Amino acid sequence: MAGAVQQMMREVMDIRQAAEYLGISGDTLYRYASEGFIPAFKLGNRWRFKRSLLDAWMVRMSGPKAASNVSVMPREKKPVGRAR
After folding, report:
1. The pTM is what?
2. How far is residue 52's CA from residue 78's CA, in Å, rounded to a whole number?
3. What is the 3-state secondary structure (H, E, C) of 33-50?
4. Sign of the Cα pseudo-torsion (55, 56, 57, 59, in order)
């Protein structure tokens, strides 16, 4: 029981722990960290995430100006085939 509480209170998380905390896949989180979209740092060759920075980032991204912080690229339409 003490190990579970200690793990929940950990400030610095690895990619698996941070992905579970945020509710996204590890692959998505790795991409976000690599692109600088989410606060992260490398310790050696492994990504690490501070819980307090993630919390502040979530508050900032969910604020009233959140829509202007995220750019969404429109999907390209598939070419229409010829009618028979």
Report:
1. 0.65
2. 43
3. HHHCCCCCEEECCEEEEE
4. positive
Contact 8, 44 (CB under 8 A): no
d(CA 83, CA 56): 53
Along the chain (84 residues), what's the average pLDDT of each consecutive run of 10 residues?
A: 59 94 94 94 94 94 68 63 66
Q: Let me know if 50 is exposed, middle or buried by CB neighbors in 10 A (0-12, 13-18, 19+).
A: middle
Specify the amino acid at residue 44: G
Q: Taking the domains of the chain in order of start, what are their residue ranges? A: 14-62
